[in-house]
Design brief:
The complex is a heterodimer of chains A (277) and B (205). Chain A is an alpha/beta fold and 277 residues long. Chain A has 7 helices and 12 strands. In chain A, the strands form 3 sheets. Chain A has a 7-stranded mixed β-sheet. In chain A, strands 7-6-10 form a 3-stranded antiparallel β-sheet. Chain B starts with 10 loop residues before the first helix and ends in an 11-residue tail after the last strand.
Chain lengths: 277, 205
């Protein structure tokens, strides 16, 4: 606390973000502009997610922060320490015990429950941005539901590689209306967006946009009838816990090209090893 | 004149707690939430839930439109003192509109946003005489597994107005329905139908 308002942001800023969040939830997948504030860390480190977390967090919430699935990487440790200091909240690494989970680029393996809120850190919220650089144009494309170019982009993958080569930030359509960037989560996590029990909020600090997927909302990954959406799979299983169903990271272990595959979700892996042992 | 309308006892933590209830209400349309907040003193049409939502969401950045039936000098004084929000006579420029079902039936033109910026729209704060689940109105859409039921009493026109609202999506109005300490939300994403017979739960998907 020490001289800061609870959860760092001032009350008027929180109210502005809260009003924007209600609109985001009311129009699932639509990007609501908000007055992004400077946070005591650089853009690209999760300032958008942090502003959302600061606006929703209460004193009795338990917070979990993950970076690429891990609780113990720099970004996760720093943000967790930040909220411990400015909000005095209890933190955890256990997915099931958390009320609010701020995440960079993963959705936890454990099934989320009703009442949990997942806050995503988003670098570039506009899925059409790489195709159309103008914000005015992309706004109009969303307004007219003009999403043909997105399919062209996926088709170009097929023409060039024989399959859809997009592996992360794979575009989705929310409740059959808005095409949305699910943030750079691996497409492995896309099916978890569909009809999830938890509320999912997305914050982009540099671009000053936030958006949301309410619980129990239809979320489809874009695809073609003859090239249906597929998730990644591995021939290996996790070298630590033996999981054959979780998202695996490849870790290089020496200069001779030795490697191992381990769960990207550290809490999932540790829990499983506890069960196995 | 003495200030009788209560503010939040602990503005930082009370508004956070109330906002989380509003967020949950909006993300799960049709669920009832009890807002634990001090009610306005007079036995007037504005209940605790409505007043709590206003204290949580309104400040000097927001414009509020007040329906004739709900307007009073005490309300204006309390809003100016606790929230500092601006009042407007132009419904199309209102961020929040404090209304009864009557105001909606009159067809007042609130802001529904534009196709490019549908979020620039009025949020309705509706004072009702009755609000319960298990009614004739069936809600479905984002935030609702299968369907939910709602009872708003005799306010048929209100629900028909909100049902029509859906056809303009993504433009539209979002509504927080309140009665005494109870609150529920019907965002523009919700589809509304009237069911005369009681469907059995197994009829839902």
């Amino acid at each position: 606390m020490n001289g800061y308002n609870f959860a760092y942001l001032d009350e008027q800023t929180k109210r502005m973000i809260r009003r924007a969040l209600l609109k985001a939830v009311a129009i699932p997948g639509y990007q609501v502009p908000f007055g992004g504030r400077e946070m005591p860390m650089p853009y690209g480190w999760g300032t958008g997610g942090m502003q959302l977390t600061a606006s929703i967090l209460g004193g009795d919430d338990v917070l979990k922060v993950i970076d690429q699935g891990a609780d113990d990487t720099t970004n996760a440790v720093s943000i967790r320490a930040f909220f411990q200091r400015v909000a005095g909240v209890e933190t955890t690494t256990a997915t099931a015990q958390a009320d609010v989970i701020q995440t960079r680029h993963r959705i936890p393996e454990a099934t989320l429950r009703h009442g949990q809120i997942l806050v995503f850190q988003v670098p570039i919220p506009e899925p059409l941005r790489f195709i159309e650089p103008s914000e005015q144009e992309t706004r109009l494309m969303h307004a007219l539901e003009e999403y043909g170019v997105m399919h062209v982009k996926l088709y170009e993958d097929i023409a060039r590689y024989g399959h859809i080569a997009t592996t992360y930030a794979y575009p989705v359509k929310v409740d059959d209306r808005y095409v949305m960037d699910p943030s750079p989560i691996p497409k492995f996590d896309n099916p978890k967006l569909h009809m999830n029990e938890a509320l999912m909020l997305f914050g982009a600090g540099r671009e000053k946009r936030l958006y949301a997927i309410p619980p129990h909302t239809r979320v489809e990954s874009l695809d073609f009838e003859d090239h249906p959406f597929e998730i990644q799979s591995w021939n290996e299983c996790c070298a630590l816990c033996g999981s054959e169903t979780s998202f695996l990271d490849e870790v290089i272990t020496d200069d001779a090209g030795s490697r191992m595959f381990v769960c990207s979700d550290t809490d999932h892996c540790l829990t499983r090893r506890g069960e196995v042992a | 004149m003495s200030m009788l309308w209560p503010g939040l006892n602990d503005p930082v933590h009370d508004s956070q707690r109330l906002f989380r209830q509003l967020l949950q209400a909006m993300s799960e349309p049709g669920t009832l939430h009890l807002l634990d907040v001090a009610a306005p003193p007079e036995d007037g049409p504005i209940g605790a839930a409505l007043w709590g939502a206003m204290l949580t969401l309104c400040d000097l950045d927001t414009r509020v439109w007040i329906a004739r039936e709900l307007d009073s000098p005490a309300l204006r004084e309390a809003l100016a003192f606790h929230a500092g929000c601006r009042l407007t006579d132009d419904p199309a420029s209102a961020d929040f509109a404090l209304v009864t079902p009557t105001a909606l039936v009159e067809g007042i033109a609130f802001a529904t946003g534009s196709d490019e910026y549908p979020d620039r729209s009025t949020t309705l704060l509706v004072a009702l005489d009755r609000l319960a689940d298990h009614g004739p109105w069936q809600l479905s859409g984002p935030g609702i597994p299968g369907w939910r039921r709602l009872d708003v009493g005799d306010d048929e026109a209100l629900m028909e107005c909100l049902a029509r609202n859906r056809t303009r999506f993504p433009r539209g109005l979002d509504a927080l329905l309140t009665c005494d300490t109870r609150l529920t939300a019907i965002p523009r994403s919700t589809r509304i139908e009237k069911r005369l017979t009681e469907d059995r739960p197994c009829m839902s998907q």
